[in-house]
Amino acid sequence: MAFSAPTGPLYYIVSLPSSVAPAGGDAESSLVKDLSSTLNLPSKDDVSPFLIPHFKIGTLDQLVQQSEELAKADSQFEAVVGRAVDVLKGVYDSKDEVAAAKVVADKQPETYLKSFQWNTAKYRVDKPLAELVDTLSKEIFALDADLKAVYSNYMIAKSNLAAVDRKQTGALSTRSLQDVVKKEHFVLGSEYLETVLVAVPKSMSKTFVKVYETLVPMVVPRSATIIAEDDEFVLYNPTLFRKSLPEFIHKCRENKWFPREFKWTDGIIEDLKKEKDRAIEQERRVWGEVVRLARATYSDAFMAWVHLKSIRVFVESVLRYGLPPDFISVLVKPPVASITKAKTALTQKYGYLAGNAFSKDKKGKVVQEDAGLQEYASIVDTEYEAFVIYDIVVV
């Protein structure tokens, strides 16, 4: 299953060299305060430190390769989170129920993001980056596969229940007859006679009553009585000799009447009711399973996604700003009405940092490659900004 386009609060994760922080006091606090002023943020809570541990760094070759892999994994993780949200929308009736189900580590997703701390107990930072990404990927893709399977079962159960419901609510030409017919409407225990049910359009009911006895030989005279009627049809129960039944059914269909395939047996009504009860029980049981798994998948996938984002920010920061790692990462919630202006303001203030990777002309075109990247320059993304910045939509 695909997932719908992400909608929700937008955040930027911005990484800048520690050297750009205003002088005086703690560099991180000073940069947070400066960014709040630069972006004219309405609340001080709209910018906060985004704590990233220092991971085990391999070679430049490995970092460049991981940069490419992380970009792909980022999109995949976002898709898993999005699919979990779509499943929640599919099993809950209201937006409020969906919102209440989106909990990450017992917190609202925005609260989790703003207070993010790397889970060192689960993901040891002394492990190679490739191993950490592999662990995160295996976890999230396993959850995604399980959720797809359970949701597929739920859709089947839901479809089965809908089919049973349609039988209960349709016209007499198609609906289940379990609550319509009774034992006395049939001739039972006869070696030669059989009762057939026919749904006749109301506009044709007089014609049916007039001619049904002569449609084929051996129809019991005056055997057809009205069992039930709705806005469109009248249900009759003519009785005839069994050997004439195939021809009688054929003649009914020629006249655009609707013979119903229904034979009375002891217990048939109870069996039909049990069929619906089973469909209801199965749908409710699978609904509970898919709700539990969708909530768990959303929570775990969102956490994994944020962990992956932090790795991506770290890798790009090292590639951009060099070793040893000396950068500050912050989480920014730009004003909804001026998201583009926020990024423009950041570019105007920190555009000079582009020299650390690529230099661009006034039109934003790449004009000079960083000699430090050498043979890797051709495969590093040339569309990035003058500094490390990634967005994350809280779906």
Automatic annotation (TrEMBL):
Signal peptide (residue range): none
InterPro entries in the record: ATPase_V1-cplx_csu (IPR004907), Vac_ATP_synth_c_sf (IPR036132)
Transmembrane segments: none
Domain of life, source organism: Eukaryota
Record keywords, A-Z: Hydrogen ion transport, Ion transport, Transport
Known partners and oligomeric status: V-ATPase is a heteromultimeric enzyme composed of a peripheral catalytic V1 complex (components A to H) attached to an integral membrane V0 proton pore complex.
UniProt function note: Subunit of the V1 complex of vacuolar(H+)-ATPase (V-ATPase), a multisubunit enzyme composed of a peripheral complex (V1) that hydrolyzes ATP and a membrane integral complex (V0) that translocates protons. V-ATPase is responsible for acidifying and maintaining the pH of intracellular compartments and in some cell types, is targeted to the plasma membrane, where it is responsible for acidifying the extracellular environment. Subunit C is necessary for the assembly of the catalytic sector of the enzyme and is likely to have a specific function in its catalytic activity.
Similarity section: Belongs to the V-ATPase C subunit family.
Protein name as it appears in the record: V-type proton ATPase subunit C
